[in-house]
Amino acid sequence: MPEVKVVQQFMQANDSVAADNRRLLAERGVVAVNLMASPGAGKTSLILRTIEALDGRARIGVIEGDTASQIDADRVATTGVPVVQVNTGGGCHLDAPMVRSALDALPLDDMDLLLIENVGNLVCPAGFRLGESQNVVIASVPEGDDKPYKYPAMFIAADVVVVNKIDLLPYLDFDLPAFRRLVQGVNPRARVFETSCRTDEGLSDWVDWLDGLRARPG
Amino acid sequence: MPEVKVVQQFMQANDSVAADNRRLLAERGVVAVNLMASPGAGKTSLILRTIEALDGRARIGVIEGDTASQIDADRVATTGVPVVQVNTGGGCHLDAPMVRSALDALPLDDMDLLLIENVGNLVCPAGFRLGESQNVVIASVPEGDDKPYKYPAMFIAADVVVVNKIDLLPYLDFDLPAFRRLVQGVNPRARVFETSCRTDEGLSDWVDWLDGLRARPG
Question: A171 contacts in B (CB within 8 Å)?
């Protein structure tokens, strides 16, 4: 079955570059976090609020992954942190070679933390390691509480799940305990944070956790 | 470049099966609509409200595509319409052969309209024709108004764009005229509906359009 062989070689090639990225980041003392989510779950907003909250505590750099456009990178650039846009040209996920190219354009020696915003997609990014030390899935309240059940691969890949847009809970039928049970069911080791980038609720726990990663990189 | 050749052959194979599906559906007088959206945009809810609203006007069948689980199919089955679950086994989109298998399990002679719920993904499904007569993208208000700009391939593929969850407009910064301008920019021929499956606002226009498709299938 030659097709299967090609796919395996392709994934091995990605994992090999991801390992190189991980080594490079460790050498420079940079902790990388891969942020994955559906389109519109609030990845960019969470990055912007995180940069603001970590001001003076950590030196941040950002990679913005999108199928097209650079409006997210433009938004991040207004904060003054170094940011590189990666356009996948329609592709559905970031891969390790794309991140490798972006690393060359970032001032790694002047960074502690790299936030990588993946393409908005709750399926494909789960399968591609980038060199990150932590995988984070952002699940927003309007998407509904059944997502760990319907997109298990993504939640299995997650070290951390952020439930975002909790300010909308009063207007929607999102059962937070049920969602936590579903996450627990597919991935008992995943840590769950609850955040709102509008009201700042829960942001400090998330930011403290990110800040703590620098003490234990890799 | 052998890889490119393989991909092209693969897409040609899909398009060929899609053409077979289209022919089979036309012979049986069934109009097929491919519903694509991000996870949690409200595809299943829109299908459920549509079945209810078209009761007595059209005989509906449903194909439910998911990476895993069958909760959406179970929800649709409670309405009494024939439904087939397609699990992609982690795959990020439906393809024409999957739909072909599902068609064999549906009572086509007793159907007028086939609603196909694709995998929740605003990237990959855009590239795979299934045999549908219309492609519909559902964009929900909480995802933000910039999606046509960030996921252009999906909006270019759309015959119709449904803006769903408009009952949440008072709680979010979604600029409806700006969204319509972005859709117009990437795809001037796309028709836009605005709906809420909570308040039923706008549903009748959408349902009337669907019902009208039967007069001009293919």
Answer: 168, 171
> Domain containing A78 — which CATH number?
3.40.50.300
Chain B contact present for A6, CB below 8 A: yes
User: Under an 8 A CB cutoff, do B68 and A152 touch?
Assistant: yes
User: Is A116 inside a domain boundary?
Assistant: yes
- ipTM for this model: 0.92
Render B125-175 in DSSP notation, one character per residue.
GGG---S-SEEEEEEEGGG-TTHHHHSHHHHHH-SEEEEE-GGGGGGS---
Q: Tens place of pLDDT for every residue, chain B, 218 residues? A: 445 556 667 788 999 999 999 999 999 999 999 999 999 999 999 999 999 999 989 999 999 999 999 999 999 999 999 999 999 999 999 999 999 999 999 999 999 999 999 999 999 999 999 999 999 999 999 999 999 999 999 999 999 999 999 999 999 999 999 999 999 999 999 999 999 999 999 999 999 999 999 865 44
- The answer to whether B39 contacts A149, with C-beta atoms less than 8 Å apart, is no
Q: Sign of torsion, CA B4 B9 B14 B16?
A: positive
Per the structure, the count of domains in chain B is 1
For B153, name the nearest residue in chain A, comparing CA atoms only. Answer: A90
A:B CB pairs within 8 Å: 114
Structural tokens at position A65: 């992954």
Residues of chain A with Cβ-Cβ distance to B85 below 8 Å are none
Say which residue the tokens 């995180």 belong to. Answer: A50
Note whether residue A186 is domain-resident.
no
- Its domain, for residue A31, covers 2-136+148-159+200-213
Q: Which of A38, A69, A91 is nearest residue B39 as measured by Cβ atoms?
A: A38
CB contact under 8 A, B150 and A67: yes
Q: Please tell me what DSSP assigns to residue A164.
A: E
CA atoms within 13 A on the CB side of B195: 27
Report if residue B218 sits inside a domain: no
pTM of the model: 0.94
Window B:90-109, CB contacts with A under 8 Å: 90-92
The CA distances from residue A176 to A140, A194, B79, B198, in Å, are: 11, 9, 27, 20
Residue A71 counted as domain residue: yes
